[in-house]
Amino acid sequence: MTGKIIITCALTGSIHTPTMSPHLPVTPDDITTQALTAASAGAAILHLHARDPETGMPSARAEHFMGFLPRIKQASDAVINISTGGSSQMALEERLAPALAAQPEMCSLNMGSMNFGIFPLADRYDDWKHPWEEPFLRATKDVVFKNTFSDIEHILTTLGKGYGTRFEFECYDAGHIQTVAYYLKQGLIKPPIFIQFVLGILGGIDASPESLTFLKATADRLLGDTFRFSVLAAGRHQMRLATMGAVMGGHVRVGLEDNLTTGAGRALAPDNAHQVSRIRRIIEEMGLEIATPQEAREMLALKGGDRVAF
């Protein structure tokens, strides 16, 4: 429990659909507003996906990202982290398009191919706002999220070596940490490494204290002192495992991409800033401090917001 804690806010993602919450940001205005209020609440890093503003469907079109990226950068010093994950139903070239156009300080990078099952969500709703939503969710029963070793090397080389982008390495299971360790030995990944432990996605490791301690022990064994870690837990597990991560010396990620509720009962969170404020209060009541965007840049050796392409 030393040092300052980086809060990452993941605003919209590609898991939840507009039917599930009226507060999920979809349009460029929605995403910009919620990004700025989340940053004001204490988020040092903003993890961003885009949506088609007409339908709310996950989008990897560069023009959809450019509808909010420059506006956020002009109004906030927060680190902008662009997804290379898109959704499991997008091809690699499609998923990489916005990051290649924007050349950001950070990108997320899923460290392996996996079953990514969000189809159980479809059973919770009967009345859909858009016709694409239910088929999109149910399709994940027979779709593999593809990030092969070749895909990972391509992303590390193109974005990392090519543009100086650093990564939030998303590890959904222990084998993903082994992949990080392999590329560290190969020299394609350089310290400091920023690992995001992702718990609670069907197809990955479950969201439990035992799983989190196992992932941390595995990273300690394979990566030594080369890494920092953050904790992301899906749904109702979000706050308790993020809190546990902070106690263990890690950083935290919250946001409507990962959980739509307040965490107190089943009430919908009114916006992303609500979750940021809540985890910030927990962190500070434990006697810890949150990191500013500039402190996060220093901890993670980021290139700076002046070296992006938006």
From TrEMBL:
Q: Which UniProt keywords apply?
A: Metal-binding, Transferase, Zinc
Question: Which sequence ranges are marked TM in the entry?
Answer: none
Q: Give cofactor(s), names only.
A: Zn(2+)
UniProt-recorded Gene Ontology molecular function terms? 3-keto-5-aminohexanoate cleavage activity; metal ion binding
* One protein family per Pfam: BKACE
Instruction: Fetch the PANTHER family from UniProt.
Output: 3-KETO-5-AMINOHEXANOATE CLEAVAGE ENZYME (PTHR37418:SF2), 3-KETO-5-AMINOHEXANOATE CLEAVAGE ENZYME-RELATED (PTHR37418)
Q: What is this protein called?
A: 3-keto-5-aminohexanoate cleavage protein
Q: Which organism is it from?
A: Pararhizobium antarcticum
